[in-house]
Amino acid sequence: MVDPSAARATIAGVTRSLTMLWIAGGLAAAIATAHVTRRHGQQHYLATQRYEDVYYLPPPDWLVLFSLGHREAVAGLVWLRALIYFGEELQQRGQVHNLYNYTDAMLALDPHFKKVYQWVSSTSLYRTGDIDADDARRAIGYLEQGVRLFPDDGELAWALGATYLYELPPLLPVEERAEPRRRGLEHVQVATRLGAGPPWLVLSTATELGRLGQNEQQIAHLQEVYDQVSDPAVKEQIEIRLTRLRDATFAEALRKTYEELDAARAVHFPYLDRELFLLVGPRPPFDGRALLLRGFDPEPDHFEDDADPDAP
Predict the structure, then answer these.
(1) What is the rounded distance in angstroms from the CA atom of residue 219 to the CA atom of residue 241?
(2) Do the beta carbons of residue 195 and residue 188 sit within 8 Å?
(3) H or E element: which one contains 136?
(4) Tens of pLDDT along 35-55?
(5) What is the tens place of the pLDDT at every residue in 9-27?
(6) Rounded-to-5 percentages of helix, strand, coil across the chain
(7) Alpha carbon 26 to chain centroid distance?
(8) Contact 248/215 with Cβ under 8 angstroms?
(9) What's the confidence (pLDDT) of residue 110?
(10) Nearest to 58 by CA among 49, 50, 67
(11) Which of 85, 168, 253, 307 is 20 to 30 A off residue 94, Cα-Cα?
(12) Rounded to an integer, what distance in angstroms lies between the CA atom of residue 87 and that of residue 91?
């Protein structure tokens, strides 16, 4: 005969086992369902996301206050964020609208952050999006600020001169291009004196000076940088250029001298040849009215004091 208590115990054990199996199966199904749901949800989230060019930092003055005196450290953090931002904008083919916001933030925190001046001068002109003369002027403005803080930095001077010479003029009307080139040459000459820029910069600067008709400045520039050039080939080119310029300058001065001499001879003694005019010189000034008042008397003590000054 079966013991009722043992039967009940057996039934209870079986019930507990079935319950545990049911709970375990439910948990496994829930976990599998959650995993699939999470995966589909993540895919849907990523598929619906769109990149946005949003600037989250506070104004530069606030950043200085919030830095609590650790301005260089915060500027370094903003620098890292700016690099990531620029890379994202390139990937998304964006307009890089907040480039100057990041730059202003870094320079407000640390005006002596030299890398920022070089970085913004490049990224403002070599990026995705629309680029115009205002971008070149903004780059020049930052570089001029850097040159004022670091007057002995030849690379900054070269970057500023190159932006004036090569980046800004193509974005301007033809009639407005001469002034930027003139100003660019001034900074490029400083860069070459400081030994910055590529090896061809010395001769290129001299060519630009010659194109502007500044031959004397061209000669002075080549003479000044000759000792600083280490490339023998460039030195040889400078020597050839100086020889040609000196000869051309002397010939130009001689030509102008003879032109002025012939012009003076035509005015004073057109009937004299050039050699004789060199001996005689220009005609002295003639004051016929004063001679008339003196009665054409060459001696000034015979001048008549009572002569009418209004007489014809």
Answers:
(1) 9
(2) no
(3) helix 133-149
(4) 777 776 666 555 554 555 577
(5) 666 666 777 677 777 777 7
(6) 70, 0, 30
(7) 68
(8) yes
(9) 93
(10) 67
(11) 168
(12) 6
Tell if the pTM clears 0.85, that is, is over it: no
Nearest CA-CA partner of 129 in 91, 170, 160, 171: 91
Instruction: Supply φ then ψ for residue 72, to 5 degrees.
Output: -65, -40
CB 117 within 8 A of CB 153: no
Written as six digits, the tokens of 252 are 């130009």
Q: Which of 124, 196, 131, 136 is nearest to 165 (CA)?
A: 136
Which residues, other chains included, contact 111 with Cβ-Cβ below 8 Å and sequence gap of 6+? 145, 149
Report d(CA 206, CA 189) in Å as an integer: 9
Percent of the chain topping pLDDT 90: 18
Q: How far is CA 244 from the centre of its chain?
A: 32
- First and final C-alpha spacing in the chain: 171
Q: 């083919």: which residue's tokens? A: 93
Angle at 38 between CA 89 and CA 28, to 5 degrees: 155
Q: List Cβ<8 Å contacts ≥24 apart for 149-152.
A: 149/111, 149/112, 150/114, 152/194
Q: Residue 308: which region, alpha, beta or left (left: phi > 0; alpha: psi -120 to 50)?
A: beta
Three-state SS at 124: coil
Interatomic CA distance for residues 262 and 2, integer angstroms: 149
Q: Which residue has the tokens 């403002």?
A: 124
Is-contact 222 242, C-beta < 8 A?
Answer: yes
Which residue is it, tokens 């010659």?
A: 210
What gap in Å lies between CA 255 and CA 259, rounded to an integer? 6
Residue 302 pLDDT grade (very low, low, confident, very high; cuts 50, 70, 90): very low
Q: Which residues contact 137 (CB under 8 A, 6 or more apart)?
A: 168
